[in-house]
What does this fold into?
Amino acid sequence: MRPMIVFLSLPVLFASLAAAGEPRRYEYLEEKMAVPVRLVFYAESPEEADAAQEAVYRRFDELNRMMSDYDPESEIVRACRESGATGEAVEISSSLYDVLSLAREMNRQTGGAFDISVSPIVKLWRRSRIYGRRPPADYLERAKTLVGNGNWELSVDDGSDPPRFFLRVLKKDVRLDLGGIAKGYAIDEGIRLLKERGIGAALIDAGGDIRAAGPPPGKDGWTIGGVSLDEGAEAAYYLTLSDTAIATSGDMFQYFEIDRIRYSHIIDPRSGEPLTARSVVSVIAPDAASADALASGISVLGPEKGILLAASTPGVEALVITSPSGDEGAKINAAAVGRFLPIRDEILEKERAR
It folds into this structure.
């Protein structure tokens, strides 16, 4: 997912000294999980801040080795490969079990619109993007048989101390792609580590997926700006957030054309087809992993069903901006729930004035 949300620094100079005895603002930026990961938080000393950022970035590296779809020796790739070859359950880490459990729940909540087992279909369409033609129909049909929660299962051995966790894939070529939830989970882990160190005023932005913990000193929250369907345009809206997460999914930058049809990089796991309408979906949720997964799932569900899902899920708010025709100059529409409602109204008012 390309960066869809921009974190706007509050008017506090990074180099300025805070008043004596008050926490100072620290900011760090490194590339992790193939995206820029920005940490912003308030700490008592440079030593405390450096130790905290090292712990957070180290955890990002650990989770990338666990969840990467591109590393043939990552824990998730190896577990799928080994279980698929033998048909037996493979022991996995508690962290991988946690994120896989959440992914199953997100699949259930979205009615299959979010599905980490879509990997075989995604790989077919990646090749299509390179060669400029649709996947062969028989290849696509076979890949679709590998998709769904029924093709893999989790189990726990509670009799051991500590408990042991297992993954079993039920078909040889089932592969699980955590790209739609991994960054969010890593952000949540980063915030957890900061809080454990007594750092409560913090924000982590991983390629546009953001979780805000407590607000900066003297502020109501962190100011976040979201972009529109138009590449390079200014922020479409601003929000002040604390103790919550926001993620955005869309195809403004990642799309391709075959036979003059514009295809999104977002795949509907139920049909095996990429989306063709342009869209931007922003989701607020209590944690970044849920926001990350729901942004992808609501993109697939579309405005009507997606907004109904958001409205019926505690702590979730959403904004869906679409251009159904796929035409760059087409009129856009917007649907929303929660604090996105006035933003939707402003977007529609501007569209009517065009």
Residues 5-13+22-63+181-352 form a domain with the T-fold fold (CATH 3.10.520.10). The chain has nine helices and 18 strands.
